[in-house]
Protein backbone atom coordinates (compact mmCIF):
# COMPACT_ATOMS: atom_id res chain seq x y z
CA UNK A 1 0.00 0.00 0.00
CA UNK A 2 1.33 3.40 -1.00
CA UNK A 3 0.22 6.99 -0.76
CA UNK A 4 -0.09 9.24 -3.78
CA UNK A 5 0.47 12.96 -3.26
CA UNK A 6 -0.23 15.70 -5.78
CA UNK A 7 0.92 19.30 -5.66
CA UNK A 8 -1.43 21.38 -7.78
CA UNK A 9 0.26 24.61 -8.76
CA UNK A 10 -0.66 27.47 -11.05
CA UNK A 11 1.64 26.22 -13.82
CA UNK A 12 2.50 22.62 -12.89
CA UNK A 13 1.00 19.49 -11.44
CA UNK A 14 3.61 17.45 -9.62
CA UNK A 15 2.96 14.05 -8.05
CA UNK A 16 4.78 11.46 -5.97
CA UNK A 17 4.14 7.88 -5.01
CA UNK A 18 5.24 7.48 -1.42
CA UNK A 19 6.04 4.07 0.04
CA UNK A 20 6.72 4.55 3.73
CA UNK A 21 9.11 7.51 3.77
CA UNK A 22 10.49 6.81 0.31
CA UNK A 23 9.52 8.60 -2.89
CA UNK A 24 9.12 5.54 -5.15
CA UNK A 25 7.96 7.43 -8.25
CA UNK A 26 7.43 10.97 -9.51
CA UNK A 27 5.27 12.39 -12.25
CA UNK A 28 4.29 15.74 -13.61
CA UNK A 29 2.13 17.61 -16.10
CA UNK A 30 1.42 21.18 -17.04
CA UNK A 31 -1.60 22.69 -15.36
CA UNK A 32 -4.08 23.05 -18.24
CA UNK A 33 -4.86 26.67 -19.06
CA UNK A 34 -8.10 25.69 -20.78
CA UNK A 35 -11.01 23.69 -19.46
CA UNK A 36 -11.20 25.12 -15.94
CA UNK A 37 -11.55 22.79 -12.94
CA UNK A 38 -12.67 19.78 -15.00
CA UNK A 39 -9.58 20.06 -17.18
CA UNK A 40 -7.48 20.09 -14.00
CA UNK A 41 -9.28 16.99 -12.70
CA UNK A 42 -8.42 15.08 -15.89
CA UNK A 43 -4.79 16.21 -15.78
CA UNK A 44 -4.41 15.17 -12.13
CA UNK A 45 -6.08 11.82 -12.82
CA UNK A 46 -3.57 11.19 -15.59
CA UNK A 47 -0.61 11.89 -13.28
CA UNK A 48 -2.12 9.67 -10.58
CA UNK A 49 -2.55 6.74 -12.95
CA UNK A 50 0.99 7.17 -14.32
CA UNK A 51 2.22 6.89 -10.73
CA UNK A 52 0.67 3.43 -10.65
CA UNK A 53 -2.00 4.02 -8.02
CA UNK A 54 -3.59 0.81 -6.81
CA UNK A 55 -7.11 0.45 -5.39
CA UNK A 56 -5.83 0.48 -1.79
CA UNK A 57 -3.60 3.48 -2.17
CA UNK A 58 -4.61 6.73 -0.50
CA UNK A 59 -4.55 9.96 -2.51
CA UNK A 60 -4.01 13.52 -1.32
CA UNK A 61 -3.84 16.85 -3.14
CA UNK A 62 -2.29 20.11 -2.01
CA UNK A 63 -4.07 22.99 -3.74
CA UNK A 64 -3.58 26.74 -3.63
CA UNK A 65 -6.23 28.96 -2.12
CA UNK A 66 -8.83 28.53 0.58
CA UNK A 67 -9.86 24.92 1.11
CA UNK A 68 -12.79 23.31 2.88
CA UNK A 69 -10.94 20.15 3.89
CA UNK A 70 -13.99 18.40 5.31
CA UNK A 71 -15.79 18.49 1.97
CA UNK A 72 -12.79 18.56 -0.36
CA UNK A 73 -13.85 21.91 -1.81
CA UNK A 74 -11.47 24.52 -3.18
CA UNK A 75 -13.39 27.65 -2.17
CA UNK A 76 -11.21 30.19 -3.92
CA UNK A 77 -8.08 29.71 -6.01
CA UNK A 78 -7.07 32.94 -7.72
CA UNK A 79 -3.88 31.34 -9.11
CA UNK A 80 -5.63 28.58 -11.05
CA UNK A 81 -6.71 29.50 -14.60
CA UNK A 82 -10.46 29.73 -15.13
CA UNK A 83 -11.14 28.66 -11.57
CA UNK A 84 -13.71 31.17 -10.39
CA UNK A 85 -16.44 29.43 -8.41
CA UNK A 86 -15.82 27.07 -5.49
CA UNK A 87 -15.22 23.56 -6.82
CA UNK A 88 -15.51 20.18 -5.09
CA UNK A 89 -12.12 18.93 -6.26
CA UNK A 90 -11.93 15.99 -3.83
CA UNK A 91 -15.26 14.39 -4.78
CA UNK A 92 -14.68 15.06 -8.51
CA UNK A 93 -11.27 13.38 -8.39
CA UNK A 94 -12.60 10.48 -6.33
CA UNK A 95 -15.30 9.85 -8.91
CA UNK A 96 -12.94 10.06 -11.87
CA UNK A 97 -10.42 7.77 -10.18
CA UNK A 98 -13.03 5.37 -8.82
CA UNK A 99 -11.90 5.69 -5.18
CA UNK A 100 -13.78 6.51 -1.98
CA UNK A 101 -12.02 9.70 -1.08
CA UNK A 102 -9.34 12.10 -2.21
CA UNK A 103 -8.07 14.39 0.52
CA UNK A 104 -7.58 18.04 -0.45
CA UNK A 105 -5.77 20.54 1.75
CA UNK A 106 -4.03 23.84 1.38
CA UNK A 107 -0.63 23.68 -0.35
CA UNK A 108 1.20 25.29 2.57
CA UNK A 109 -0.50 23.08 5.13
CA UNK A 110 0.70 19.97 3.28
CA UNK A 111 4.15 21.53 2.90
CA UNK A 112 4.34 22.03 6.66
CA UNK A 113 3.31 18.42 7.23
CA UNK A 114 6.06 17.22 4.90
CA UNK A 115 8.76 19.31 6.61
CA UNK A 116 7.52 18.11 9.98
CA UNK A 117 7.50 14.43 9.13
CA UNK A 118 10.42 14.09 6.73
CA UNK A 119 12.22 17.43 6.58
CA UNK A 120 13.70 20.10 8.83
CA UNK A 121 11.12 19.57 11.58
CA UNK A 122 11.36 15.81 11.91
CA UNK A 123 12.77 15.87 15.44
CA UNK A 124 10.07 18.06 16.91
CA UNK A 125 6.41 17.93 17.85
CA UNK A 126 5.77 21.57 17.12
CA UNK A 127 6.77 23.91 14.36
CA UNK A 128 5.59 26.65 12.10
CA UNK A 129 6.34 26.18 8.41
CA UNK A 130 6.51 29.36 6.33
CA UNK A 131 6.64 29.21 2.55
CA UNK A 132 7.90 32.27 0.74
CA UNK A 133 7.11 32.21 -2.95
CA UNK A 134 4.75 34.28 -5.07
CA UNK A 135 2.83 34.76 -1.84
CA UNK A 136 3.60 33.87 1.75
CA UNK A 137 1.78 31.04 3.47
CA UNK A 138 2.19 29.07 6.64
CA UNK A 139 1.22 25.82 8.27
CA UNK A 140 1.27 25.14 11.98
CA UNK A 141 2.07 21.83 13.66
CA UNK A 142 1.09 21.56 17.33
CA UNK A 143 1.33 18.39 19.36
CA UNK A 144 2.45 16.51 16.26
CA UNK A 145 -0.68 17.41 14.31
CA UNK A 146 -1.49 19.92 11.61
CA UNK A 147 -3.65 22.64 13.11
CA UNK A 148 -6.37 23.86 10.79
CA UNK A 149 -8.27 26.01 13.27
CA UNK A 150 -11.90 26.96 13.58
CA UNK A 151 -12.28 28.09 9.97
CA UNK A 152 -9.28 26.57 8.22
CA UNK A 153 -7.17 29.69 8.51
CA UNK A 154 -4.62 28.64 11.15
CA UNK A 155 -1.08 29.40 10.01
CA UNK A 156 -2.20 32.09 7.51
CA UNK A 157 0.73 34.20 8.57
CA UNK A 158 1.00 35.92 5.17
CA UNK A 159 -1.87 38.18 6.12
CA UNK A 160 -0.52 39.33 9.48
CA UNK A 161 -0.06 43.11 9.56
CA UNK A 162 3.63 43.98 9.76
CA UNK A 163 3.37 47.65 8.74
CA UNK A 164 0.18 49.44 9.84
CA UNK A 165 -1.43 51.11 6.81
CA UNK A 166 1.47 49.83 4.73
CA UNK A 167 1.56 48.45 1.19
CA UNK A 168 -1.56 46.91 -0.28
CA UNK A 169 -1.62 43.11 -0.19
CA UNK A 170 -2.98 40.83 -2.92
CA UNK A 171 -5.99 40.26 -0.64
CA UNK A 172 -6.76 43.99 -0.53
CA UNK A 173 -5.57 44.41 3.07
CA UNK A 174 -2.86 46.87 4.06
CA UNK A 175 0.64 46.19 5.34
CA UNK A 176 0.45 42.41 5.33
CA UNK A 177 3.57 40.23 5.46
CA UNK A 178 2.82 38.91 1.96
CA UNK A 179 3.04 42.44 0.52
CA UNK A 180 6.62 42.72 1.83
CA UNK A 181 7.97 39.19 1.56
CA UNK A 182 6.02 37.59 -1.29
CA UNK A 183 7.57 37.71 -4.75
CA UNK A 184 4.48 39.28 -6.33
CA UNK A 185 4.42 42.17 -3.84
CA UNK A 186 8.18 42.64 -4.05
CA UNK A 187 8.07 42.69 -7.85
CA UNK A 188 5.32 45.28 -7.86
CA UNK A 189 7.38 47.48 -5.54
CA UNK A 190 10.57 46.97 -7.57
CA UNK A 191 8.82 48.05 -10.78
CA UNK A 192 7.37 51.10 -9.02
CA UNK A 193 10.82 52.10 -7.76
CA UNK A 194 12.36 51.49 -11.17
CA UNK A 195 9.73 53.70 -12.81
CA UNK A 196 10.41 56.39 -10.18
CA UNK A 197 14.10 56.70 -11.14
CA UNK A 198 15.55 54.09 -8.78
CA UNK A 199 16.90 52.00 -11.65
CA UNK A 200 17.30 48.36 -10.79
CA UNK A 201 18.74 45.37 -12.66
CA UNK A 202 15.73 43.41 -11.39
CA UNK A 203 13.66 44.92 -14.20
CA UNK A 204 16.40 44.38 -16.80
CA UNK A 205 16.81 40.75 -15.77
CA UNK A 206 13.09 40.00 -15.64
CA UNK A 207 12.14 42.06 -18.72
CA UNK A 208 8.44 41.56 -19.38
CA UNK A 209 8.41 38.25 -17.51
CA UNK A 210 7.96 37.55 -13.80
CA UNK A 211 10.76 38.34 -11.38
CA UNK A 212 11.65 34.79 -10.49
CA UNK A 213 13.61 33.81 -7.40
CA UNK A 214 16.74 33.48 -9.50
CA UNK A 215 16.28 37.03 -10.83
CA UNK A 216 16.32 38.17 -7.21
CA UNK A 217 19.39 36.08 -6.46
CA UNK A 218 21.25 37.49 -9.47
CA UNK A 219 20.34 41.08 -8.59
CA UNK A 220 21.57 40.57 -5.03
CA UNK A 221 24.80 39.05 -6.32
CA UNK A 222 25.24 42.10 -8.56
CA UNK A 223 24.88 44.41 -5.53
CA UNK A 224 21.68 46.01 -6.83
CA UNK A 225 20.52 48.49 -4.18
CA UNK A 226 16.78 48.11 -4.82
CA UNK A 227 17.06 44.32 -4.54
CA UNK A 228 19.13 44.65 -1.36
CA UNK A 229 16.62 47.07 0.20
CA UNK A 230 13.58 44.99 -0.70
CA UNK A 231 15.15 41.77 0.58
CA UNK A 232 16.07 43.63 3.79
CA UNK A 233 12.44 44.66 4.15
CA UNK A 234 11.30 41.09 3.50
CA UNK A 235 13.68 39.79 6.18
CA UNK A 236 12.43 42.37 8.67
CA UNK A 237 8.79 41.64 7.89
CA UNK A 238 9.28 37.88 8.23
CA UNK A 239 11.14 38.40 11.51
CA UNK A 240 8.38 40.58 12.93
CA UNK A 241 5.63 38.15 11.95
CA UNK A 242 7.58 35.22 13.38
CA UNK A 243 8.19 37.11 16.64
CA UNK A 244 4.45 37.61 16.97
CA UNK A 245 3.87 33.89 16.59
CA UNK A 246 6.61 33.09 19.12
CA UNK A 247 5.14 35.49 21.69
CA UNK A 248 1.79 33.78 21.24
CA UNK A 249 2.88 30.15 21.15
CA UNK A 250 6.48 30.09 22.37
CA UNK A 251 7.51 27.63 19.65
CA UNK A 252 11.10 26.49 19.35
CA UNK A 253 11.21 25.87 15.62
CA UNK A 254 10.24 27.78 12.49
CA UNK A 255 11.03 26.20 9.11
CA UNK A 256 11.28 28.60 6.17
CA UNK A 257 10.91 27.25 2.64
CA UNK A 258 9.32 28.14 -0.67
CA UNK A 259 10.90 29.21 -3.94
CA UNK A 260 12.46 32.47 -2.79
CA UNK A 261 13.83 31.12 0.51
CA UNK A 262 15.14 27.96 -1.19
CA UNK A 263 16.94 30.03 -3.81
CA UNK A 264 18.44 32.57 -1.38
CA UNK A 265 19.48 29.80 0.98
CA UNK A 266 20.64 29.56 4.60
CA UNK A 267 22.00 33.13 4.71
CA UNK A 268 18.53 34.48 4.11
CA UNK A 269 16.99 32.15 6.68
CA UNK A 270 19.69 33.01 9.22
CA UNK A 271 18.95 36.70 8.79
CA UNK A 272 15.25 35.99 9.35
CA UNK A 273 16.16 34.27 12.63
CA UNK A 274 18.17 37.31 13.73
CA UNK A 275 15.32 39.64 12.80
CA UNK A 276 12.83 37.56 14.78
CA UNK A 277 15.10 37.43 17.82
CA UNK A 278 15.61 41.18 17.73
CA UNK A 279 11.85 41.61 18.25
CA UNK A 280 11.55 39.14 21.12
CA UNK A 281 11.57 40.93 24.44
CA UNK A 282 13.18 38.07 26.33
CA UNK A 283 16.39 37.43 24.44
CA UNK A 284 16.58 33.96 25.96
CA UNK A 285 14.01 32.39 23.63
CA UNK A 286 15.10 28.96 22.39
CA UNK A 287 13.77 29.84 18.92
CA UNK A 288 15.54 28.43 15.89
CA UNK A 289 14.63 29.44 12.34
CA UNK A 290 15.94 26.90 9.83
CA UNK A 291 15.76 26.29 6.09
CA UNK A 292 13.26 23.80 4.71
CA UNK A 293 14.81 20.60 3.36
CA UNK A 294 12.36 19.17 0.88
CA UNK A 295 12.31 21.96 -1.71
CA UNK A 296 9.80 21.56 -4.54
CA UNK A 297 8.77 18.14 -3.33
CA UNK A 298 7.28 19.29 -0.01
CA UNK A 299 3.75 19.85 -1.31
CA UNK A 300 3.31 16.49 -3.00
CA UNK A 301 5.07 14.57 -0.21
CA UNK A 302 2.96 16.30 2.44
CA UNK A 303 -0.27 15.63 0.55
CA UNK A 304 0.68 11.94 0.41
CA UNK A 305 1.57 11.87 4.12
CA UNK A 306 -1.65 13.59 5.12
CA UNK A 307 -3.75 11.25 2.97
CA UNK A 308 -1.99 8.19 4.39
CA UNK A 309 -2.90 8.95 7.99
CA UNK B 1 -10.63 18.83 50.14
CA UNK B 2 -10.39 22.38 48.86
CA UNK B 3 -8.03 24.43 46.76
CA UNK B 4 -6.47 27.65 47.99
CA UNK B 5 -5.61 30.29 45.40
CA UNK B 6 -3.57 33.43 45.99
CA UNK B 7 -3.23 36.43 43.71
CA UNK B 8 0.00 38.20 44.57
CA UNK B 9 -0.15 41.78 43.33
CA UNK B 10 2.10 44.79 43.69
CA UNK B 11 -0.12 46.35 46.36
CA UNK B 12 -2.43 43.55 47.53
CA UNK B 13 -2.48 39.85 48.31
CA UNK B 14 -5.90 38.36 47.66
CA UNK B 15 -6.84 34.75 48.39
CA UNK B 16 -9.77 32.41 47.92
CA UNK B 17 -10.71 29.01 49.24
CA UNK B 18 -12.34 27.13 46.39
CA UNK B 19 -14.59 24.14 47.03
CA UNK B 20 -15.50 22.68 43.67
CA UNK B 21 -16.51 25.74 41.65
CA UNK B 22 -17.59 27.72 44.70
CA UNK B 23 -15.62 30.45 46.42
CA UNK B 24 -16.14 29.35 50.05
CA UNK B 25 -13.94 32.00 51.65
CA UNK B 26 -11.94 35.08 50.76
CA UNK B 27 -9.04 36.83 52.46
CA UNK B 28 -6.67 39.64 51.80
CA UNK B 29 -3.65 41.57 53.02
CA UNK B 30 -1.46 44.41 51.87
CA UNK B 31 1.66 43.37 50.02
CA UNK B 32 4.42 44.29 52.48
CA UNK B 33 6.65 47.07 51.22
CA UNK B 34 9.43 46.06 53.60
CA UNK B 35 11.14 42.73 54.02
CA UNK B 36 11.40 41.71 50.35
CA UNK B 37 10.46 38.18 49.27
CA UNK B 38 10.56 36.72 52.79
CA UNK B 39 8.13 39.36 54.01
CA UNK B 40 5.82 38.41 51.15
CA UNK B 41 6.08 34.71 52.05
CA UNK B 42 4.98 35.47 55.61
CA UNK B 43 2.09 37.65 54.44
CA UNK B 44 0.87 34.98 52.00
CA UNK B 45 1.17 32.27 54.66
CA UNK B 46 -1.02 34.36 56.98
CA UNK B 47 -3.73 34.74 54.32
CA UNK B 48 -3.56 31.01 53.55
CA UNK B 49 -4.01 30.04 57.19
CA UNK B 50 -6.91 32.50 57.61
CA UNK B 51 -8.59 30.76 54.69
CA UNK B 52 -8.52 27.58 56.79
CA UNK B 53 -6.19 25.49 54.65
CA UNK B 54 -6.12 21.84 55.67
CA UNK B 55 -3.25 19.39 55.16
CA UNK B 56 -4.88 17.88 52.05
CA UNK B 57 -5.71 21.17 50.38
CA UNK B 58 -3.75 22.19 47.31
CA UNK B 59 -2.29 25.70 47.10
CA UNK B 60 -1.55 27.85 44.07
CA UNK B 61 -0.17 31.35 43.65
CA UNK B 62 -0.45 33.69 40.69
CA UNK B 63 2.51 36.07 40.70
CA UNK B 64 3.52 38.92 38.43
CA UNK B 65 6.60 38.65 36.26
CA UNK B 66 8.47 35.80 34.66
CA UNK B 67 7.92 32.46 36.39
CA UNK B 68 9.73 29.15 36.21
CA UNK B 69 6.68 27.01 36.96
CA UNK B 70 8.61 23.74 37.16
CA UNK B 71 10.72 24.98 40.07
CA UNK B 72 8.31 27.51 41.55
CA UNK B 73 10.76 30.35 40.98
CA UNK B 74 9.78 33.96 40.31
CA UNK B 75 12.63 34.89 37.99
CA UNK B 76 11.86 38.59 37.70
CA UNK B 77 9.07 40.64 39.27
CA UNK B 78 9.63 44.35 38.69
CA UNK B 79 6.29 45.23 40.32
CA UNK B 80 7.04 43.63 43.70
CA UNK B 81 8.83 45.89 46.21
CA UNK B 82 12.40 44.89 47.00
CA UNK B 83 12.17 41.83 44.78
CA UNK B 84 15.33 41.98 42.73
CA UNK B 85 16.90 38.54 42.45
CA UNK B 86 15.04 35.41 41.31
CA UNK B 87 13.29 33.85 44.31
CA UNK B 88 12.01 30.29 44.84
CA UNK B 89 8.60 31.37 46.07
CA UNK B 90 6.96 27.95 45.71
CA UNK B 91 9.49 26.01 47.81
CA UNK B 92 9.70 28.82 50.40
CA UNK B 93 5.92 28.87 50.84
CA UNK B 94 5.74 25.07 50.95
CA UNK B 95 8.30 25.02 53.74
CA UNK B 96 6.61 27.77 55.74
CA UNK B 97 3.20 26.13 55.37
CA UNK B 98 4.46 22.59 55.91
CA UNK B 99 3.08 21.23 52.62
CA UNK B 100 4.70 19.27 49.80
CA UNK B 101 4.22 21.79 47.05
CA UNK B 102 2.86 25.22 46.27
CA UNK B 103 2.25 25.85 42.59
CA UNK B 104 3.36 29.24 41.27
CA UNK B 105 2.40 30.52 37.82
CA UNK B 106 2.15 33.82 36.04
CA UNK B 107 -0.79 36.01 37.11
CA UNK B 108 -2.21 36.25 33.59
CA UNK B 109 -1.85 32.53 32.98
CA UNK B 110 -3.92 31.79 36.08
CA UNK B 111 -6.41 34.49 35.07
CA UNK B 112 -6.88 32.80 31.70
CA UNK B 113 -7.42 29.44 33.41
CA UNK B 114 -10.10 30.99 35.64
CA UNK B 115 -11.96 32.59 32.72
CA UNK B 116 -11.73 29.32 30.81
CA UNK B 117 -13.03 27.11 33.58
CA UNK B 118 -15.50 29.37 35.36
CA UNK B 119 -15.84 32.59 33.36
CA UNK B 120 -16.45 33.83 29.84
CA UNK B 121 -14.65 30.89 28.22
CA UNK B 122 -16.37 28.06 30.05
CA UNK B 123 -18.11 26.68 26.94
CA UNK B 124 -14.97 26.37 24.86
CA UNK B 125 -11.81 24.30 24.63
CA UNK B 126 -9.70 27.11 23.26
CA UNK B 127 -9.33 30.76 24.06
CA UNK B 128 -6.90 33.57 24.51
CA UNK B 129 -7.30 35.60 27.69
CA UNK B 130 -5.94 39.16 27.55
CA UNK B 131 -5.64 41.24 30.70
CA UNK B 132 -5.36 44.97 30.28
CA UNK B 133 -4.19 46.72 33.42
CA UNK B 134 -0.94 48.51 34.28
CA UNK B 135 0.58 46.26 31.64
CA UNK B 136 -0.94 43.88 29.12
CA UNK B 137 -0.61 40.13 29.54
CA UNK B 138 -2.16 37.09 28.03
CA UNK B 139 -2.75 33.43 28.66
CA UNK B 140 -3.55 30.85 26.01
CA UNK B 141 -5.79 27.81 26.41
CA UNK B 142 -5.48 25.16 23.70
CA UNK B 143 -7.19 21.80 23.80
CA UNK B 144 -8.55 22.62 27.24
CA UNK B 145 -5.09 23.15 28.73
CA UNK B 146 -3.03 26.19 29.61
CA UNK B 147 -0.20 26.45 27.13
CA UNK B 148 3.07 27.60 28.66
CA UNK B 149 5.33 27.00 25.67
CA UNK B 150 8.97 26.09 25.34
CA UNK B 151 10.22 28.80 27.71
CA UNK B 152 7.10 29.85 29.62
CA UNK B 153 6.36 32.80 27.34
CA UNK B 154 3.29 31.54 25.47
CA UNK B 155 0.51 34.13 25.50
CA UNK B 156 2.90 37.06 26.15
CA UNK B 157 0.93 39.14 23.74
CA UNK B 158 1.79 42.42 25.50
CA UNK B 159 5.17 42.39 23.81
CA UNK B 160 3.97 41.86 20.26
CA UNK B 161 5.01 44.73 17.99
CA UNK B 162 1.96 46.70 16.88
CA UNK B 163 3.75 49.84 15.66
CA UNK B 164 7.22 49.24 14.15
CA UNK B 165 9.72 51.55 15.88
CA UNK B 166 6.86 52.95 17.93
CA UNK B 167 6.69 53.97 21.59
CA UNK B 168 9.12 52.48 24.06
CA UNK B 169 7.68 49.65 26.13
CA UNK B 170 8.38 49.00 29.83
CA UNK B 171 10.59 46.12 28.68
CA UNK B 172 12.74 48.45 26.58
CA UNK B 173 11.36 47.21 23.26
CA UNK B 174 9.73 49.49 20.71
CA UNK B 175 6.11 49.63 19.59
CA UNK B 176 4.80 46.82 21.77
CA UNK B 177 1.10 46.39 22.51
CA UNK B 178 1.73 47.13 26.19
CA UNK B 179 3.08 50.58 25.34
CA UNK B 180 -0.24 51.44 23.65
CA UNK B 181 -2.82 49.55 25.71
CA UNK B 182 -1.29 49.25 29.18
CA UNK B 183 -2.22 51.90 31.72
CA UNK B 184 1.42 52.74 32.53
CA UNK B 185 2.28 53.40 28.87
CA UNK B 186 -0.95 55.32 28.30
CA UNK B 187 -0.34 57.47 31.37
CA UNK B 188 3.19 58.28 30.25
CA UNK B 189 1.87 59.36 26.87
CA UNK B 190 -0.98 61.40 28.40
CA UNK B 191 1.45 63.32 30.62
CA UNK B 192 3.73 63.96 27.65
CA UNK B 193 0.83 65.31 25.62
CA UNK B 194 -0.38 67.42 28.55
CA UNK B 195 3.10 68.92 28.96
CA UNK B 196 3.19 69.63 25.23
CA UNK B 197 0.07 71.85 25.36
CA UNK B 198 -2.58 69.18 24.71
CA UNK B 199 -4.25 69.83 28.07
CA UNK B 200 -6.14 66.85 29.38
CA UNK B 201 -8.38 66.29 32.40
CA UNK B 202 -6.57 62.98 32.87
CA UNK B 203 -3.74 64.85 34.56
CA UNK B 204 -6.11 67.01 36.65
CA UNK B 205 -8.05 63.96 37.80
CA UNK B 206 -4.98 61.90 38.60
CA UNK B 207 -2.89 64.75 40.04
CA UNK B 208 0.39 63.32 41.33
CA UNK B 209 -1.12 59.84 41.69
CA UNK B 210 -1.47 57.07 39.13
CA UNK B 211 -4.03 57.37 36.36
CA UNK B 212 -6.34 54.63 37.53
CA UNK B 213 -8.91 52.94 35.33
CA UNK B 214 -11.64 55.11 36.82
CA UNK B 215 -9.65 58.26 35.96
CA UNK B 216 -9.69 57.06 32.36
CA UNK B 217 -13.42 56.32 32.52
CA UNK B 218 -14.16 59.77 33.94
CA UNK B 219 -12.05 61.53 31.31
CA UNK B 220 -13.82 59.62 28.54
CA UNK B 221 -17.21 60.50 30.02
CA UNK B 222 -16.13 64.16 30.06
CA UNK B 223 -15.27 63.99 26.35
CA UNK B 224 -11.58 64.63 26.93
CA UNK B 225 -9.89 64.48 23.53
CA UNK B 226 -6.56 63.11 24.74
CA UNK B 227 -8.31 60.30 26.60
CA UNK B 228 -10.48 59.55 23.55
CA UNK B 229 -7.46 59.45 21.24
CA UNK B 230 -5.38 57.27 23.54
CA UNK B 231 -8.22 54.81 24.12
CA UNK B 232 -8.76 54.71 20.33
CA UNK B 233 -5.09 53.83 19.94
CA UNK B 234 -5.36 51.17 22.63
CA UNK B 235 -8.38 49.63 20.88
CA UNK B 236 -6.55 49.60 17.53
CA UNK B 237 -3.42 48.10 19.06
CA UNK B 238 -5.39 45.36 20.83
CA UNK B 239 -7.30 44.61 17.63
CA UNK B 240 -4.12 44.31 15.60
CA UNK B 241 -2.43 42.02 18.13
CA UNK B 242 -5.54 39.84 18.36
CA UNK B 243 -5.78 39.61 14.56
CA UNK B 244 -2.20 38.33 14.49
CA UNK B 245 -3.10 35.62 16.98
CA UNK B 246 -6.22 34.67 15.02
CA UNK B 247 -4.27 34.40 11.77
CA UNK B 248 -1.83 32.09 13.53
CA UNK B 249 -4.23 29.92 15.51
CA UNK B 250 -7.70 30.60 14.09
CA UNK B 251 -9.25 30.75 17.57
CA UNK B 252 -12.93 31.50 18.00
CA UNK B 253 -12.79 33.21 21.36
CA UNK B 254 -10.76 35.99 22.96
CA UNK B 255 -11.66 37.06 26.50
CA UNK B 256 -10.57 40.56 27.51
CA UNK B 257 -10.30 41.44 31.20
CA UNK B 258 -8.07 43.34 33.60
CA UNK B 259 -8.70 46.60 35.46
CA UNK B 260 -8.98 48.91 32.47
CA UNK B 261 -11.18 46.60 30.38
CA UNK B 262 -13.40 45.78 33.37
CA UNK B 263 -13.89 49.47 34.10
CA UNK B 264 -14.58 50.51 30.48
CA UNK B 265 -16.92 47.58 30.02
CA UNK B 266 -18.52 45.84 27.04
CA UNK B 267 -18.39 48.90 24.76
CA UNK B 268 -14.61 48.85 24.94
CA UNK B 269 -14.46 45.10 24.36
CA UNK B 270 -16.91 45.35 21.46
CA UNK B 271 -14.74 47.98 19.81
CA UNK B 272 -11.72 45.70 20.23
CA UNK B 273 -13.63 42.95 18.42
CA UNK B 274 -14.42 45.31 15.53
CA UNK B 275 -10.80 46.41 15.35
CA UNK B 276 -9.60 42.81 15.23
CA UNK B 277 -12.09 41.87 12.53
CA UNK B 278 -11.08 44.85 10.41
CA UNK B 279 -7.56 43.40 10.23
CA UNK B 280 -8.60 39.86 9.32
CA UNK B 281 -8.33 39.28 5.61
CA UNK B 282 -11.17 36.78 5.49
CA UNK B 283 -14.08 38.63 7.00
CA UNK B 284 -15.83 35.35 7.68
CA UNK B 285 -13.81 34.51 10.80
CA UNK B 286 -15.99 33.16 13.62
CA UNK B 287 -13.99 35.23 16.11
CA UNK B 288 -15.77 36.62 19.15
CA UNK B 289 -14.10 39.00 21.59
CA UNK B 290 -15.95 39.10 24.90
CA UNK B 291 -15.54 40.70 28.31
CA UNK B 292 -14.07 38.68 31.16
CA UNK B 293 -16.55 37.73 33.88
CA UNK B 294 -14.56 37.14 37.03
CA UNK B 295 -13.09 40.61 37.55
CA UNK B 296 -10.58 40.92 40.39
CA UNK B 297 -11.13 37.36 41.48
CA UNK B 298 -9.77 35.74 38.31
CA UNK B 299 -6.17 35.49 39.51
CA UNK B 300 -6.87 33.82 42.84
CA UNK B 301 -9.57 31.55 41.43
CA UNK B 302 -7.31 30.48 38.55
CA UNK B 303 -4.39 29.79 40.89
CA UNK B 304 -6.67 27.56 42.96
CA UNK B 305 -7.98 25.77 39.86
CA UNK B 306 -4.51 25.18 38.49
CA UNK B 307 -3.23 23.88 41.84
CA UNK B 308 -6.22 21.54 42.16
CA UNK B 309 -5.53 19.70 38.94
H/I helix tally of chain A: 10
Structural class of chain A: alpha/beta
N-to-C SSE string of chain A, H for helix and E for strand: EEEHEEEHEHEEEHHHHHEHEH
CATH architectural label of the largest domain in chain A: 2-Layer Sandwich
Overall average pLDDT of chain A: 93
- Tertiary shape of chain A: globular
Task: Profile the largest sheet of chain A.
Answer: 5 strands, mixed
Summed up, the domain count of chain A is 2
Q: For the largest sheet of chain A, list the strands in their spatial order.
A: 3-2-1-4-7
What's the number of extended β-strand segments of chain A?
A: 12
Chain pair with largest interface: A-B, 47 and 47 residues
Parts with pLDDT < 50 across at least 5 consecutive residues of chain A: none
Percent of residues in helices of chain A:
40-55%
Amino acid sequence: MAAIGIDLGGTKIYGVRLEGDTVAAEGKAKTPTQGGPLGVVDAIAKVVSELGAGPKDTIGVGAPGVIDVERGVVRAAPNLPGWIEPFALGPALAETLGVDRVLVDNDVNVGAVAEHRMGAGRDTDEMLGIFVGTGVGGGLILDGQLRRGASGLAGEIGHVVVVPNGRTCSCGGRGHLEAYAGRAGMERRARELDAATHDTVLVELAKAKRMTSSVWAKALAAGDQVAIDLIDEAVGALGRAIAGVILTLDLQLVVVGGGLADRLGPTFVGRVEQAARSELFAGASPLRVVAAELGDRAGAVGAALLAAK
